[in-house]
Write a structure and sequence with these properties.
The chain has 448 residues and is of the alpha/beta class. The chain contains 16 helices and 15 strands. Bound molecules: methoxycarbonyl-substituted glucoimidazole. One of its GO terms (cellular component) is cytosol.
Length: 448
């Protein structure tokens, strides 16, 4: 058995998001978000599930903080619900909304846990969507206004700031594939949304710097490792398009201030062009202090004419699968972050999400023996260690997720938590994976 030891300043954490855990959807002045609308649109979410109650963390946040403290994490990543702060997206600040997050942040700090806050994890105020949402450039200013209120309210308390969670999901998953809120299926619209979200990210970074807010700011992109099935040029080109759709389309603007030209041309051929205004690319590529990467899986693809958006079909090569039918491809984590480091330089990296969904069974004595999830984490921790040993500036890891929670279009049937949530009683029960991670954090390593 080989000993795997992490640097003493390595940040172990877990992650959640507002709409997925808070519930209290109409409490204390919260306005409706696009996920309230989408989840209550018949056929959009499994079983008609919605976030009205979720894990009720709005009322049970102290239980969550106690679980985090017992777990031994150094940091906790959560998101702030814009509709709690500005029920109509802009206008007057809803102080009661801010009060909730003041209690969470103060509770975390009292427990010795660093709050790491995502400003936008998909719950756009519906009132802004009614005016075009991210397709409307006015939403950029609304986001900066909202961000400024949060920056000022928590300056000195929150030290790690993430502007957006997964602009790929906000744009292509939600506005081209139509699987997430608001559920559009238009490529040009999705390209507009992606661009405007990245401009909004850059404008928020500028505001953060202008205000002299303490701490570090970055953004989180979901990176997917995707390789050609064969060495044929057709497979290589097809796989590169598919990978770039997820990775380069967002990382290039963020770090190089340009879009990958081969994909710009490809989208142009599909009738979609990027609505760049003068100054946009400089704004998007504002220097950031870290990059958050969400990694779950990867795969192989080959050329197949007229298959999907990129003439590319995924090829099954025998990976084990999670309950989301995602490949368990831990080496992909090493490959994608090595690639990102090589391509985009030495900006510190945090894995802001990594985890797995399996069919969990709660035993009579309220235990969950989630062997497969433990194995998933162990495999990915080893790859984290390989990355650190290889000189990649990997500074921390946030397990997704602290709790079983509202898994978007999959509703509550898909569980990612290291803590089991009983949705009838809202009781929380740590799973075996929780105790595994607790031990890894305590020893800052493990026997591989
Ligand atoms: C392809 O996976 C994505 O990177 C991804 C996976 N996940 C995410 N993004 C979101 O950030 C979370 O809100 C989800 O709950 C979580 C699990 O589905």
């Amino acid at each position: 058995m080989a000993r795997i030891d992490f640097p003493k300043d390595f940040v172990w954490g877990t992650a959640t998001a507002s709409y997925q855990i808070e519930g209290a959807w109409q409490e204390d002045g919260r306005g409706p978000s696009i996920w309230d609308t989408f989840s209550k649109t018949p056929g959009k979410v499994f079983n008609g599930d919605n976030g009205d109650v979720a894990c009720d963390s709005y009322h049970r946040y102290e239980e969550d903080i106690a679980l985090l403290k017992k777990l031994g994490v150094k940091a906790y990543r959560f998101s702030i619900a814009w509709p709690r702060i500005f029920p109509q997206g802009t206008g007057e600040v809803n102080e009661k909304g801010l009060d909730y997050y003041r209690k969470v942040v103060d509770g975390l700090i009292a427990a010795g846990i660093e709050p790491c806050v995502t400003l936008y994890h998909w719950d756009l105020p519906q009132a802004l969507q009614d005016k075009g949402g991210w397709d409307n450039r006015d939403t950029i200013d609304a986001f900066v206004n909202y961000s400024e209120v949060i920056f000022k309210a928590f300056n000195g308390k929150i030290k790690q700031w993430i502007t957006f969670n997964e602009t790929w999901c906000v744009s292509f998953l939600s506005n081209y594939l139509g699987l997430h809120a608001p559920g559009n299926t238009d490529l040009q619209l999705a390209v507009n949304v992606a661009h405007h979200c990245m401009v909004a990210h850059g404008e928020a970074v500028k505001k953060f710097r202008e205000l002299g807010i303490e701490g570090e700011i970055g953004t989180t992109h979901n990176l997917y490792w995707f390789e050609p099935y064969s060495t044929s040029p057709e497979d290589a080109a097809a796989a590169r398009r598919n990978r770039a759709f997820n990775n380069e389309w967002f990382m290039e603007p963020t770090f190089k201030g340009t879009y990958p030209q081969f994909l710009v041309d490809w989208f142009k051929g599909k009738g979609a062009e990027v609505p760049i205004l003068p100054g946009d690319m400089e704004t998007i590529s504002q220097k950031i202090d870290f990059i958050g990467v969400n990694f779950y899986s990867g795969g192989f693809g080959r050329y197949k004419k007229d298959e999907g958006l990129f003439d590319c079909e995924e090829v099954q090569v025998g990976f084990d699968k999670t309950y989301m039918d995602w490949n368990v491809y831990a080496d992909g984590l090493y490959k994608v972050l090595s690639w990102a480091h090589e391509e985009y330089g030495d900006t510190p990296i945090y894995i802001t999400e990594n985890g797995a969904c399996y069919e969990d069974v709660l035993t009579e004595d309220n235990r969950v023996h989630d062997v497969l999830r433990k194995e998933y984490f162990k495999k990915h921790f080893i790859q984290c260690h390989r990355l650190i040993e290889s000189g990649v500036p990997l500074k921390g890891y946030f397990a997704w997720s602290l709790l079983d929670n509202f898994e978007w279009a999959e509703g509550y049937r898909k569980r990612f938590g290291i803590v089991y949530t009983n949705y009838e009683t809202l009781e929380r029960y740590p799973k075996d994976s929780y105790y595994f991670i607790q031990d890894v954090i305590k020893n800052n390593g493990f026997e591989a």
